[in-house]
Amino acid sequence: MSQSPKLMQPTKYDFWFLPLGGTGEIGMNMNLYGHDSQWLMVDCGMGFEHTETRERRVCADPSFIEAQRENLQAIVITHAHEDHIGALLSLWPRLQAPIYATSFAAAVILNKLSQVTWGHRVPVIEVEMQNPMFMGEFEVTWLPMPHSIPEATSVLIETPAGKLLHTGDWKIDNNPVVGTAFDSAIYQHLKSFQVDAMVCDATNAIKPGKTLSESACYQGLYQTISAAKNRVVVSCFSSNIARLLTLARIAKKTGRQMAVFGRSMENMVSIARRLGYWPRELELIDPKHIGYLPPEEVLVVATGSQAEPRAALTKMAQGRHYWLYLEPEDTVIFSAMKIPPNKTKIDQLIKKLRALDLTVIHADEVKDKVLLHASGHPAEDDVKQLLEWVQPKTLIPTHGEPEHLKALAELAKKTGIQEVFEGRNGDLFKISPFVKVERNTVPIEIIELLES
Q1: DSSP state of 262
Q2: What is the pTM for the complete model shown?
Q3: Which of 26, 121, 250, 306 is the most exposed place for a label (fewest CB within 10 A)?
């Protein structure tokens, strides 16, 4: 644990951004905004730390804001990915601030809170898109922003001292399969707001061109699954409801029965059904029955695309899954990217699967333009377009490792942004009354999360 944190407090003339997690790394997103002695937290996520013997679930140490939690007005959630909400269950008793989220994210959070006896005490407030909410001196508006999960958002944060757009995770997608298409009019209108700063997702800033639409995955997945003669197992992120719907449609078209393996995936499908994101005609079968079907009729969608040790795909690779034993000539498809910190263990999992005489296909390794995965983050041209529409005075890259932050900073400078500040967790970005960065203002540590 770090030393007693320095209790900085912004004045009524100040508007500050202080990242505790997620700036200089992928995961553990935890951002603070300060104005007039008050603080707002945007996202409260987890990450993974790998050692030779085990994998730890970790998050940023919240001691700085915990020491003055009476000044924390709210925890604002951009979307329901674990690197944005995964630490809430462990940290809420230390923070005790109301949580604001859209209906999908709120449902995922409430599902988590149902695991603990005190969960009913946590105020979870559902918000509507483009409907401003006041939290102390902060006015917050959630704006729709396509990503790889329903109801992803950016947030516009307004104070008497300045205005800021926190993009969350995003992409420009005109056919996202689930939810509404990217609405450029919303972001072009922000230009008239004279946004002082934009804190922007840098994950894919090193990639040229545009990020492909989620709908573009259908053809590649259909082509690959159609060609498989035996069982097919597809591993993807459990929260990517659009990808799950695409696979369910492919299962129906190819005469296969689809089941989902993994608690997180089962929970996500249940929430999607409840909130109307899952069409009734796309039926899934009970996963316990999948092992009794002829191999050519089986399509399993499983957790474990990042080689998580307790995930369904890892258990299948070890021959210890309850409901399905993989056999030679079955096909395993990784419909996800290799997140950089996980690359080594993903490669080890692929090697283990291939040792079972399985056909293993990873989206990152496929050639001949067969698309098996579409990123949820913006490439260079997408970022340029958003910057042109919003025209913030200052750009601060976040949600990326150092190479991603640097790439976005350089890109922003080329597009003519007046001030660009590349920094790290613990740096204090002063947006008003003047722009300045104070390095290493808050000591940064990582803490281990309790098992859930």
Answers
A1: S
A2: 0.95
A3: 121
What is the structure's pLDDT at 450? Answer: 75
* Cα–Cα nearest to 59, from 17, 31, 99: 31
- For the chain, list residues with pLDDT below 50: 1-4
Task: Tell me the C-alpha distance between 112 and 271, whole Å.
Answer: 12
**Residue 6: per-residue pLDDT:** 65
Least Cα distance to 49 among 341, 428, 410 occurs for: 341
For residue 369, the one-letter residue type is K
Q: Give the strand pairing for 446-448 and 55-60.
A: antiparallel
**Closest to 372 measured CA to CA, from 228, 261, 190, 260:** 228
pLDDT in tens, 229-266: 999 999 999 999 999 999 999 999 999 999 999 999 99
Task: Say what the pLDDT of residue 451 is.
Answer: 61
CA distance 77 to 149: 13
**358-392 residues labelled b (16+ CB within 10 A) or e (exposed):** bbbbbbeebeeeebbbbbbbbbbebbbbbbeebbb
H/E stretch holding 265 reads helix 263-274
What sign has the CA pseudo-torsion 431, 432, 436, 437?
negative
CA neighbor of 386 nearest in space, from 162, 157, 148, 191: 191
* Chain CA centroid to CA 186, Å: 22
Cα dihedral angle (392, 398, 403, 406), rounded to 10 degrees?
30
For the chain, give the longest Cα–Cα distance: 68
CB neighbours of residue 34 within 10 Å: 26
In which residue are the tokens 């997140």 written?
Answer: 339
Residue listed under structure tokens 């608690």: 263
Name the CA radius of gyration of the chain, rounded: 22
What's residue 257's pLDDT?
A: 98
Distance in angstroms (rounded) separating the CA atoms of residues 169 and 186: 17
Residue 275 CB neighbour total at 10 angstroms: 15
Residue 94, classified by CB atoms within 10 Å of its CB into exposed (0-12), middle (13-18) or buried (19+), is: exposed
Taking residue 263's Cβ as centre, other Cβ atoms within 10 Å add up to 13
Q: How far is CA 113 from the centre of its chain?
A: 19
Residues 8 and 68: their CA atoms lie apart, in Å, by 9
Is 214:177 a contact under the CB 8 Å cutoff? yes
Residue 1 confidence (pLDDT): 42
Q: What type of residue is 382?
A: D
- List the helix and strand counts (H, then E) for the chain: 12, 23
DSSP code of residue 5: P
- How far is 58 from 47, CA to CA, in rounded Å? 5
Amino acid at 60: A
